Amino acid sequence: MAGYLRDKAVVITGAGGGIGRACALACAAEGAKVVVADIGVGLAGEDPTSEVAEAVVKEIEDAGGEAVAVAEDVSTMAGGERIVHTAVERWGRIDGVVAVAGILRERMLFNMAEDEWDAVIATHLKGHFTVFRHAAAVMRKQESGSLIGFTSGAFAGSVAQANYSAAKGGIVSLVRSAAVGLHRYGVRANAVAPVARTRMSANVPMELAEMGEPEDVAPLVVYLLSDAAKDVTGQVYTAVGGRIAVWNQPVEVREMRIDGRWTPEQIAARFDEVGQERMGLIDRLEQIRKAATSGDKPNA
Ligand SMILES: NC(=O)c1ccc[n+]([C@@H]2O[C@H](COP(=O)([O-])OP(=O)(O)OC[C@H]3O[C@@H](n4cnc5c(N)ncnc54)[C@H](O)[C@@H]3O)[C@@H](O)[C@H]2O)c1
Questions:
Q1: Suppose 19 and one of 191, 214, 218, 270 were both cysteines; which one would form an S-S bond, judging by CB atoms 3.0 to 4.6 Å apart?
Q2: Is this structure's pTM higher than 0.70?
Q3: How far is the CA of 19 from the centre of ligand 1 (A)?
Q4: What is the set of domains in the chain, with CATH numbers?
């Protein structure tokens, strides 16, 4: 067993399957003690079972590692508290939280029902808050810790997943806020935007998507949890196959000024001075639509 995370206590939500499971196995293989937190639901959040978390714990134990299963719902404060406190009660500390749990309820905005919005926001965005909140309180006292959120390239916009995109954008802002707010206590926060072959990505057309495996995402998570990343905070990283990329920090790019208050007419007359930033996604969708009508395959 390698020792990149030797003796660290790490909580991973959504660790019963997909990318979370790959992260849990990799962290345990690097010497971390792992809370495998998962309620074992279907893709849309239905039919919970504790079996998936227990199965991953067994895999870790069979490989000589240490782990404990917690079948708690990350979208509740009580669930988040019990997940975090399982690590603290067992191992006396919490060095890392990796918030991977997620569900999908795809729908065009004009057809989306309130429960489709609420369930996705609750699982992803609140599901980060519940574990980050309780872990941050412990990490602040410890004066160390690494929080890792799971976002998606979809945070930049999504055609049929406005709920998911909004949650993933919220996670980026939550991670940045945690990085800023906890920096003075020695606690770090970063986000990973993965692309990997799981049940969640099964409906993405393969010819359009850059694709990798869950095991390709895990090494970046291990690195961000480790002391080697002690100066890395407030970042968003894409991880897909053999590619890791860093996202920019949001900044204003152009401005225009006037003495006093603008009128709408003055804005209209000078609007080109600020103009618009191109939305690549709209260009890309146009490209795909044109390719579909002409029968050509668009460039991936
Ligand atoms: N697979 C991809 O290509 C991809 C792309 C972008 C982002 N992501 C993100 O990565 C993360 C992992 O995705 P995945 O593909 O491994 O998904 P997955 O569906 O394989 O696994 C998600 C896990 O979360 C668990 N879960 C769901 N709701 C929960 C809750 N309320 N409490 C506790 N556990 C719960 C599920 O039981 C499941 O085991 C998600 O946040 C997803 O949005 C994945």
A1: 214
A2: yes
A3: 7
A4: 9-246 (3.40.50.720), 253-300 (no CATH)
